[in-house]
Amino acid sequence: QQQVKQSPQSLIVQKGGISIINCAYENTAFDYFPWYQQFPGKGPALLIAIRPDVSEKKEGRFTISFNKSAKQFSLHIMDSQPGDSATYFCAASNPNQFYFGTGTSLTVIP
Amino acid sequence: GAGVSQSPSNKVTEKGKDVELRCDPISGHTALYWYRQSLGQGLEFLIYFQGNSAPDKSGLPSDRFSAERTGGSVSTLTIQRTQQEDSAVYLCASSLVTGISNQPQHFGDGTRLSIL
């Protein structure tokens, strides 16, 4: 059973637009929800993370929205830039388990 | 450096050979993870080490795969009798586990393994 479901698989956005990637989880014991960004030839790098006691976290152009009751969270990239083109992974964890989504390939067109 | 270091960065070998992949985690990180990432695919969990506890080997795809972590630091992933389907990028990550709250995983840049 896939613990974290991520969509869409791929996304194309115009420069300046908003990119939105969604994730859903099943296990209510998860208490940490990070997003990772991966460029070709590199390992994933932590982008932003949230804990379930808040509904939103913003860092620059990147925002996580968290809906605890729906067991869903999403990444919003405002004013998307070509340099944001990468693969994005959501994840969900507790101290004993760590699960990644299947990834979203984002392409931002100049 | 201060990050997770993996070696070699690239490895090409013939089918049937054994390979060893090395991971140096961030100093002080007690948790270490191995993942496999096929071209354009997600992260496939392989094995997890936490402190002195027995490793979680639930993700290892076959008995040709094994891993060890010596002295709670450096880890080696060994693939015996390699097959072409083993071709992938093998990623290592480490994290500081407090047991109370989670900390992010920090990844190396991986070893790109190609089996001819």
Provide tags for this entry:
heterodimer; A: 110 residues; six-stranded mixed beta sheet; five-stranded antiparallel beta sheet; 11 strands; B: mainly beta
Mean pLDDT of chain A: 94
Helical stretch count of chain A?
0
Helix content of chain B: under 10%
Number of DSSP strand runs of chain A? 11
Give the overall average pLDDT of chain B. Answer: 91
Which stretches of chain A are low in confidence, meaning pLDDT under 50 for 5 or more residues running? none
How does the helix and strand content of chain A classify structurally? Answer: mainly beta
Envelope shape of chain B: globular
Class by SSE composition of chain B: mainly beta
For the largest beta-sheet of chain B, the strand count, sense and barrel status come to:
6 strands, mixed
- Most residues in contact, chain pair and counts: A-B, 22 and 23 residues
The quaternary state of the protein chains shown equals heterodimer
How much helix, percentage-wise, in residues of chain A? under 10%
Ends apart, CA distance between termini of chain A:
38 Å
* Gross geometry of chain A: globular
Précis, in short:
The complex is a heterodimer of chains A (110) and B (116). Chain A has 110 residues and is mostly beta strands.
SSE diagram, text form:
The complex is a heterodimer of chains A (110) and B (116).
Chain A: E1 4-7, E2 10-14, E3 19-25, E4 33-38, E5 45-50, E6 56-59, E7 62-67, E8 72-77, E9 86-94, E10 97-100, E11 104-109
Chain B: E1 5-7, E2 10-13, E3 19-24, E4 31-37, E5 44-50, E6 65-69, E7 75-79, E8 88-95, E9 106-107, E10 111-115
Parallel strand pairs in B: 2-10
Antiparallel strand pairs in B: 1-3, 3-7, 4-5, 4-8, 6-7, 8-9, 8-10
